[in-house]
Write a structure and sequence with these properties.
The complex is a heterodimer. Chain A has 14 helices and seven strands. Chain A is mainly alpha-helical. Chain A has a domain of 266 residues: Cytochrome Bc1 Complex, Chain C, CATH 1.20.810. Chain A has a two-stranded antiparallel sheet with strand order 1-2. In chain A, helix 2 crosses helix 9. In chain B, helix 1 runs antiparallel to helix 2. By secondary structure, chain B is of the alpha+beta class. The radius of gyration of chain B is 35 Å and the shape is elongated. Chain B has a four-stranded antiparallel beta sheet with strand order 2-3-4-5, with no helix packed on it. Chain B has a four-stranded antiparallel beta sheet with strand order 6-7-8-9, with no helix packed on it. A two-stranded antiparallel ribbon of chain B has the order 10-11. Among the domains of chain B are: 59 residues; 123 residues, 3-layer Sandwich (Rieske Iron-sulfur Protein), CATH 2.102.10.10. The chains are: A mainly alpha, B alpha+beta. Chains A and B meet through helix 4, helix 6, helix 7, strand 4 and helix 9 of A and helix 2, strand 1 and helix 3 of B.
């Protein structure tokens, strides 16, 4: 008796010419553990998040805070910020929960991004795992959504600016933007509607989406069997190697979760991850120096800072810096990321299935493309810090912004060129002196470079 | 399906007992630590203490789990991958199907968006400034020219609307006379000029004023505006000047607006209306 789900899976498999094969094989190499770390962090986030959601109130209406925080006792604060202060100062262990939640969110984003980078560099996204990659990019977008909504919830000083910036990005969308901004914000700040949307997103919609996508992702990993690094004892291209789910994979995952929980807790003892008290609540018409979103969103604010002022009017459409930096550049980056497997398949004309992971330098086109994409995203990310850099160096911030604009072009070009060269050298060295049973060669060497 | 030679051993006798004591010891330690943690939690101990005790518990659990990983492994197993050499390697979806799918998605998206937009209205001009409205400072008091020293900046709102978002305005006492394209008839008391506080770039508060070159500076994305020349953007990402509020001194000696802001306050729209 098979379950309906298994029956559907079997039908799908038959339809695409794949024979279903039950034993589950899970990879437990260190590289594969990166993705397990993201799931472990998500568990921590869920546990702490449920506890925090019980006390937090998504309200912008002012309330009088009364409690043990001397700085705010008796003061009128926005409801959301007051509930954050209540959690931090008046509820036993509340500050620890908040610190662990924030520390785990850093771990979650870091593990997600590193897992993506590994997938790309080693070519794990190729047939038959393209759909797995697509769900992975979806997971990254959900993670970014968590990052943004999570920043809005405390309604701290930076939050108001973040809301405004989001409104201005919506507003910069040609033709439909004004109405969309009105729908999301319902007038100006403080916007209770946006607060409610952010709360519903962070606590219900995004977690449900993430669980659904993660389920699909893991199911695909299970069905397709993991791609593996070349090893001497087994030809991984025709034989899948892995460990059973129970007890090997589950025990390892539990060990990783316990270890990371320890690391996160230790960091929460040492680092004031989430201590918003010193920052204060959002007040309309106020902003301060060193306004920064969470680091996963640096690439957006970085673009807003260094992309020059543009004002191009084409009929009814006006193209501004906000449209380019807030919509076009991130759209290109995410689009490249999502469509890269199809792009590579077309460029290399490589339609076969691959189960062996490549060396990062094995395919020059891939190495170059990833170097360009990654360095572009990194320069945008570091552009978010031009004000801090100006403070450290004493140079005028305008010159630093100009320098970063130049770097935004030069660094990806340089990185792409260097990466392609390194990859070609690697191939040449392997061709001249192949290892016994060298799996690396032969393969297509397509020299197309910078995207 | 075969198993590779990494099978765990299950020692009996003394070695097995040592293993059991090791595992049980760490688990018991973790249990005791958990009870201590709960007691400390209820007793509202310091965050750092809770975190360190929690680290200890997690560490003990990790040692116990590590022992289980080492001893309880079933080991690696292998399975043949499906043979796809006979499968048609052409794209499973034809170009026509992909294009048709994308087209259908685009049409559906456009219909959904159009429906959604019916519920949102284009943003209102959003300003309640008008001829004769008095300028009120943060405390709600009417602002008088002598309240602003040379090089000073004061944030004001229409009287009765202190703290509103879109109508926040900065009044600046310039050190040098204002020039075009400033609306010179909107300058009060020779050197008082007023601009919207909402950045035309991304809507942050243009909260900083640099007295050296009388520049207004937005801390969010470093847009810079020249307060002497109609708040024209001089550096950074903004491309539109800050709207100016024309000022005058009322007969009673306080400042009033002589009209609305010269443009809608806030970020520039991506839609051009004619």
């Amino acid at each position: 008796m098979t379950s309906p789900l298994a029956a559907i899976a079997e039908r799908l498999d038959r339809r695409i010419g794949r024979r279903a094969d039950p034993p589950s094989l899970w990879p437990t190499s260190f590289g594969a553990l990166i993705s397990h770390a993201a799931i472990a962090a998500f568990l921590l986030l869920t546990v702490t998040g449920i506890a925090l959601a019980l006390v937090y109130r998504p309200s912008v209406a002012p309330v009088i805070y009364e409690g043990s925080a001397p700085l705010f006792d008796g003061r009128e604060l926005p409801g959301a910020f007051a509930s954050i202060i209540t959690i931090s100062e008046d509820i036993p262990g509340g500050l620890l929960l908040r610190r662990v939640h924030v520390a785990a969110s850093h771990l979650f984003m870091l593990a997600t991004v590193l897992h993506l980078l590994r997938t790309l560099l080693l070519g794990a996204f190729r047939r038959p795992r393209m759909l797995t990659h697509a769900t992975g990019v979806g997971l990254l977008l959900v993670a970014l959504g968590f990052s943004y909504t999570g920043e809005l919830l405390p309604y701290g000083l930076v939050t108001g600016s973040s809301m405004r910036i989001a409104e201005s990005v919506l507003y910069a969308l040609p033709l439909a933007g004004e109405q969309l901004a009105d729908l999301a914000f319902d007038g100006g700040l403080p916007s209770q509607r946006l607060m409610t949307l952010a709360w519903a997103g962070h606590v219900f919609l995004l977690p449900l989406t993430l669980i659904g996508l993660l389920g699909a992702h893991l199911w695909l990993v299970h069905r397709r069997r993991p791609a593996l690094e070349a090893r001497p004892d087994v030809d991984v291209a025709i034989t899948a190697v892995g460990r059973p789910l129970w007890p090997d994979a589950v025990l390892r995952f539990a060990l990783l979760t316990a270890g990371l929980t320890g690391v996160v807790l230790l960091s929460a003892a040492l680092v004031p991850w989430a201590d918003l008290e010193l920052e204060g609540p959002f007040l309309t018409a106020e902003a301060t120096n060193s306004v920064h979103p969470p680091w996963p969103l640096f690439f957006l604010t970085g673009g807003l800072r260094v992309v020059p002022a543009v004002d191009l009017i084409l009929g009814p459409v006006r193209i501004t810096n906000v449209l380019i930096a807030g919509v076009v550049l991130p759209g290109i980056l995410v689009g490249m990321l999502a469509l890269y497997p199809w792009l590579e398949r077309r460029v290399l004309d490589d339609r076969t299935e691959h189960h062996r992971l490549d060396h990062p330098l094995e395919v020059p086109f891939r190495t170059g493309s990833i170097a360009v994409m990654t360095s572009f995203a990194l320069v945008l990310t570091f552009s978010a810090g031009i004000d801090v850099l100006a403070f450290w160096t004493g140079l005028p911030v305008e010159r630093i912004a100009d320098a970063f604009l130049i770097l935004l072009v030069l660094v990806p070009a340089g990185c792409g060129w260097t990466a392609v060269r390194a990859a070609r050298r690697f191939r040449a060295a392997r061709l001249a002196d192949p290892l016994p049973d060298d799996p690396v060669l032969p393969g297509p060497d397509t020299g197309a470079t910078d995207a | 399906m075969t198993r590779l030679p990494t099978e765990p051993s299950t020692p009996s006798g003394r070695a097995g007992q040592v293993r059991l004591v090791w595992l049980g010891g760490w688990l018991a330690g973790a249990g005791v630590g958990l009870i201590v943690l709960i007691v400390l939690w209820v007793a509202d101990a310091r965050t750092e203490v809770l975190a360190l005790v929690g680290t200890g518990v997690a560490g003990a659990v990790a040692v116990a789990l590590h022992h289980l990983v080492v001893t309880q492994d079933l080991g690696e197993r292998t399975a043949a991958r499906p043979d796809t050499s006979q499968v048609d390697l052409a794209s499973r979806l034809g170009r026509r199907q992909v294009l048709a799918g994308l087209g259908a998605a685009a049409v559906a998206g456009a219909v959904a968006l159009t429906g959604l937009l019916r519920f949102g209205s284009p943003a209102p001009t959003g300003s309640t400034w008008a001829d004769g409205v008095a300028l009120a400072s943060q405390t709600g008091d009417r602002l008088r020219p002598e309240d602003i020293p040379l090089g000073g900046v004061v944030t004001v709102w229409p009287e009765g609307e202190v703290g509103a978002e879109r109508t926040a305005v900065m009044v600046i006492r310039l050190r040098e006379p204002a020039q075009e394209p400033t609306r010179l008839d909107g300058i009060a008391d020779d050197t008082l000029v007023a601009y919207s506080r909402l950045c035309t770039h991304a809507g942050c508060a243009v909260a900083l004023y640099r007295d050296v070159d009388q520049a207004l500076f937005c801390p969010c994305h470093q847009a810079t505006f020249d307060a002497r020349r109609g708040a024209r953007p001089t550096a950074g990402p903004a491309s539109v000047p800050l709207p100016q509020l024309p000022l005058a001194v009322h007969a009673d000696g306080h400042l009033i607006a002589t009209g609305d802001l010269t443009a809608r306050p806030g970020p520039a729209s991506g839609t051009v209306r004619t």
